[in-house]
Design a protein that fits this description.
It is built from ten helices and seven strands. The chain is α/β, with parallel strands linked by helices. Helix 2 runs parallel beside helix 3, helix 4 runs parallel beside helix 5 and helix 5 runs parallel beside helix 6. The structure holds coenzyme A. The site of coenzyme A (COA) has 15 residues, from helix 5 and helix 7.
């Protein structure tokens, strides 16, 4: 057991904190987004999840129901605005108007800026940035009615440069700008807009992809707290920001990264270079 898995931050939150809330979470079938869905469920919210894989959503939905939540799911690729709108409409029909939207779906891989195809760059921008916009747009009518909140899942690459992550940095920086613009534009409707910036998180597909070429130790050395986060730690912060405790917080970036954004990632870039691009 790691330090991250031996404590349970969500147990410190009230099980009724999000009672009466309906959350819609993209990418909610796995990883950080499922951690957020679990935290919301344990705080009393109804939870809708969407993602590309039916089986993954069905498994996650069963787990969330086991936590006592009413759950809805419908597959959608966040790159497809019509499919995403249909998934949102399904969630509203099943659970009621959405009061918490989480734009979490993301894609990532290491690639050299000059060598990746335009389609590779576009794919990450489409999933991360366009997907976040599609989520905001599709949930706006509900959020306006409920005076709700939208939370964007960002990353340190939004403000910290790293080799072989140009596509991800561009997409995540765009998400931060979108988050701030919506805070200003939608604030008068009572809608809050914030971002959550994770560092390395254990047991996620994203981390498996990023640490694949280098191993975990190198990443942990780049975290002042010396360890990965758990998905529950991100979930607990998402619940705090999205619920009544965050009522006056908008336009804010919540950095929940163990301090990793303050550290250099040069040794990781060097190791990735050796592992993936040594012959270039
Ligand atoms: N290096 C360079 N280019 C890559 C790549 C890599 N490792 N992986 C994919 N690409 C390119 C493909 O070659 C393709 O470009 P092309 O048409 O010019 O050849 C483009 O990216 C799209 O790839 P494709 O596999 O068709 O896209 P997809 O929609 O099936 O998958 C990804 C999207 C690539 C982001 C995939 O990694 C994914 O599904 N990720 C989701 C999970 C994830 O990344 N989670 C972590 C979040 S932090």
């Amino acid at each position: 057991m790691t330090e991250a898995t031996t404590h349970d931050p969500v147990s410190n939150l009230s099980p009724t904190m999000l009672e009466g809330h309906v959350a819609f979470i993209t990418g909610g079938g796995s990883g950080i987004n499922l951690g957020i869905a679990r935290a919301f469920a344990r705080c009393g919210a109804k939870v809708a999840i969407c993602g590309r894989t039916e089986e993954r959503l069905a498994t996650a939905a069963e787990e969330l129901r086991g936590l006592g939540a009413e759950v809805a799911y419908q597959t959608a690729d966040v790159r497809d605005p019509e499919a995403l709108q249909a998934s949102v409409d399904h969630a509203v029909a099943e659970l009621g108007d959405i009061s918490i939207a989480v734009a979490g779906a993301a894609g990532n891989f290491f690639a050299q800026a000059e060598k990746m195809s335009p389609n590779a760059f576009r794919t990450v921008v489409d999933i991360d940035l366009m997907g976040a916009y599609h989520t905001a747009r599709a949930t706006f009518p509900s959020l306006k009615k409920t005076r709700g909140s939208i939370l964007f899942i960002s990353a340190g690459q939004a403000y910290k440069a790293m080799k072989y992550q140009a596509h991800v940095g561009a997409a995540k920086a765009g998400i931060e700008a979108l988050m701030k613009n919506l805070a200003v534009e939608w604030g008068p409707h009572g809608i809050r807009s914030n971002s959550l910036v994770p560092g390395p998180v254990e047991g996620t597909e994203g981390m498996a992809r990023l640490a694949g070429p280098t191993g975990d130790e190198m990443w942990k050395q780049a975290v002042p707290l010396g360890r990965y986060a758990s998905t529950a730690e991100l979930g607990a912060m998402a619940a705090v920001m999205s619920g009544p405790l965050g009522a006056y917080v908008t336009g804010s970036q919540y950095i929940v990264d163990g301090g990793s954004g303050l550290m250099t990632s040069a040794h990781i870039s060097d190791a990735v270079e050796k592992s993936l691009f040594a012959q270039e």
